[in-house]
Design brief:
alpha/beta, 5-stranded parallel β-sheet, 5 helices
Length: 120
């Protein structure tokens, strides 16, 4: 069974992502974090296979959290979800080895993310 960590300071965003992914991957396990710092702890505790990460959150930026997670777990696949579509954010996400997906979350964006997670 695959495990997805959903990281976003917005509970509504986490619920939307979970609902969309669960619709296409009903057997996956879901865990959530509301900050970058919490995400790093959750990765150590639960060893998820995949992670969706918001960028703009209180405390640590999602890209910084993703960088720390990928340094310790380079096999993990991360998708950066953000309404902040500046080139610098997209470039940083790609430099980390993550994909960048613009918010709002849609069925189409979830399909892109799930495809990224499942491709080798």
């Amino acid at each position: 069974m695959k495990k997805l960590l959903i990281v976003d300071d917005s509970k509504v965003s986490r619920m939307v992502i979970r609902a969309h992914v669960k619709a296409v991957q009903p057997d996956w396990e879901f865990i959530e974090a509301a900050s970058g710092e919490e995400a790093i702890k959750m990765v150590e505790q639960h060893a998820p296979d995949f992670c969706t990460m918001d960028i703009n959150m209180p405390g640590m930026l999602g890209t910084d959290a993703a960088e720390q997670i990928l340094q310790a777990h380079p096999h993990m696949r991360i998708a950066i979800f953000s309404a902040n579509v500046q080139d610098t954010m997209q470039t940083r996400a790609h430099a980390l080895g993550a994909i960048f997906v613009a918010k709002p979350v849609t069925e189409k964006s979830i399909a892109i993310v799930v495809h990224h997670f499942m491709s080798e």
